[in-house]
Amino acid sequence: MAGHSKFKNIMHRKGKQDAIRSKQLNKVSREITVAVRSGGEDPGGNPRLRAALIAARLCNMTNDRIQRAIKTAIGSGDADNTEEIRYEGYGPHGVALIIETLTDNRNRTAPEIRSVLSKNGGSLGETNSVAFQFQRNGQIIYPLSVASADAVFEAAVEAGADNVESNDEQHIITTTIENFGSALNQLIDKFDAPLESGFVWQAHNPVNVAGDQAAAVLKLLNALDDLDDVQDVYSNAEFDPEFLAQQAA
Fold it and tell me: pTM for the complete prediction?
């Protein structure tokens, strides 16, 4: 399925590595808290939490910080009113955007997002103004080295996945929301923890952007991702791999 990747998987993150790590840890900590609130503190029965704990492990989050995030969610930690808010809008050249946030102050978050969009040729839309152009799915990503494409495909199908794409770097497994938890558990039993897992928005009809258009869209996506309250940014833009490689360099 085209348009499968989270923007953060293809973008080049700027800035000092310690600042990037700090922001990543903050995002994962908030995700753990919200995951516990929405599905309980047992990762075996809460696939969102299990995915968040995998992300915590990958970014070397300490166990103390993980436990603080969980305690905050169940009311035994510091007071916290973090909520999930999804924003939708358009970027340069009509590119559709879904911006997922975790914030404790929506009166701060919305103006920040609106400002970034306005400064970069975009605009904020109403709820569900672009969501119909996307589908919400589960996604599980393994490195290419975990197994052959055939072996991963076979295991994913047995686990109830809908689709598997293997490229030069990774295996990308797509599931329905309903099958995500079961598929994740079975694949972890088979291949250990994935590189990344969670729920994503996948564009039905990705739009190719190139040249100056691609540069303008990428600039906006970078600016949105730099906002502290933004967890993930999705678009229906499809970038040429060579362009992305040049930007990363």
Answer: 0.82
